[in-house]
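Handout, section B. The chain below has 360 residues.
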Amino acid sequence: MEKKLFCIAEGFLPTGAIRSIAPLGIGNINDSFLAEGEEKYVLQRINTDVFTDPVGVMQNIQLVCAHLEEKIKAEGGNPWRESLQFLPTRADGTLLYIAEDGTVWRMYRFVDDVVTLQNAASPDAAYKAALAFGQFQSRLADFDATRLVETIPDFHNTKKRWDVFCKAVDEDRANRALEVKDLIKTAERLSYLAPALTGLVEKGELPVRVTHNDTKINNVLFDKTTGNGICVIDLDTVMPATALYDFGDMVRSGANATDEEDTDLSRVSLDMAYYAAFLRGFLDGTGGRLTRAEKENLAQSALVITFELAIRFLGDYLNGDVYFSIRTPRHNAQRAANQLQLVCDMEKKYEAMQKMLDTI
């Protein structure tokens, strides 16, 4: 494997430029390696089972990174630390290298003196992550999102996700519907959330922007010295959509009072201090670029995206666990229960979530 990795690295850099290659990070989709020589690079295999159009993925990334770089320069920042720098291949100058076995690879410069967080250790960390994602939105506000392809079509189309879930309930392929009937009943009660955002987008009430679509805190690089979020990474799902998907996923993944894998539902709730931090950070980062309709639906987006993931987990359980990786036989059902409980708690706190807009 090591010899193969060196050969792939030579698709981007001259022979001998890399002295060592080792696994990097804990990503669940792509395989990443730290390649070191005089400089450091990330060598990454793109998972083409998930991203079936790697050319489209890299075209999106190239367009977005070029735009970000110009904005960062204009702001007096350092694009080599604040945006990803991808290397062209030596053969044809594209950003993708196809190995002999057909696997697809890319390489970008490693950003040094940074840390990544798997969870927000404090509301301050949540604020700084949301600020980084908000700045990402702000810098791309004047970018024409229609220039981007959908790398995963209907990724956050909650209405279609609901239709897929209903089909899973009806077919009950793994004969599990009776066992999780209470979860299905809860999902059915919450189904009013399915068309909530998609309907507003279709009516033109929410603008279509460049969105990240995977706004977990581990997709922000934090400066070791200042602790500030300086670079948004993992751009494979950059697509045209509503900015509310990004805010909702931040809250879903970062403001749960416990871990999203926790099976003790008594511990699952929305931490309002963290919610406030995400809200302040995102509003500060976007710098007044959000429309009134976007602001008014920020709280709702948290419920919608949490509900969306819940029915994806539950639907996969009903289908026999064919999509998400699992560690135990009931893992997907437990994940779904956690997320549904979180939505229900958000419902109770919805009025307070909305009122926070008036205090920020």
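Note. Strands lie at 18-23, 31-37, 40-46, 97-98, 104-109, 114-115, 209-211, 220-223, 229-232, 239-241. Compare this with the example in section A.
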